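Justification of resources, computational component.

The compute hours requested in this renewal are based largely on the per-chain cost of generating structure records like the one below. Each record pairs the submitted sequence with a full structure-token output. That output is archived, and it is also reused by downstream analysis tasks.
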Amino acid sequence: MPSIMRFIVVGFFLFQSFRFYVNGVGLSYNFYGKTCPQVEYIVRDGLRPMFLTDPTSPAALLRLMFHDCQVQGCDASILIDPGHGSEATEMKASKNFGIKKRELISMVKSMVEAQCPRQVSCADILVLAAREAVAASGGPRINVPLGRRDSLHSPSYRLADALLPPATTGVADMLKIFANKGMTLAESVAILGAHTLGITHCSNIQNRLYGLKNGELRAIEPTFAAFLRLTCQRGSLTSNLSFVFNDPTPFAFDNEYYANAMRGRGLLRIDVEMVSDPKTARLVQHFAMNRDDFFRAFSSAFVKLSRYGVLTGKQGIIRKNCYEIK
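The structure output for this chain reads:
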């Protein structure tokens, strides 16, 4: 990567350390300084044994936060269970298939409640849990502002399905989604690096492997394409159960996602397109070779996503139980 590219990326993030994108007035980096100063340590200590016993937990918590924040802001609405006779909540959305580990947020919330009753929102705990998931997997420790409030309702599954991007989303549409949340081009490419953790279900790549557009299959490295077809067989009744790892290091938060995509081993359409698209190709190459720059860009993007459309002040509530609105 030319040195000028590195200068631009590093310079941007040095600038960002002095100027912060404002969205979500009411958040601060010392919000619980008087009411629950130990909250970040409670979350960290509560999750540490879970991460040690179940290495899939970090990826699950990161995805849980991303899906919550993309529907109507980071308000913990994804944690709400449906009440009697109510419409199916967002957890029933088809695009929330595979979402798990909600119980970990509830567990940590009970720990926080024991020391700081009705002070810390489920929304803040979810963001802190995702932050810990990244750090525990070898990624950066992200400093996040706090002060979110919990939603008073859960959006319908229809809204969640309308707002969560499908597995077939390409570069142009994905860049629009992240630009609407205030992200720069570099941050938009970096936030996709969250795919370095976890898995992709076969149901999300069936069309790429067996669809009529053979060009998508040709974009995949041949031996890897053969492996995917063997693992994710056509019309398999278990396509929702079968999966493949996102990259060779699925439990480590690193920049292998970009290197893997450049080798022609991307799983989703966005993984393949970002390597060749003129807008994103140089950044993909840069992040593949410069882990620290990727970490800086991802951290900035993570905070912007966590601030987008949040409830603060007297909006919303502080739930005692993350599953219930009361």
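The first strand starts at residue 199 and ends at 201. Residues 4 and 123 are 39 Å apart (CA to CA).
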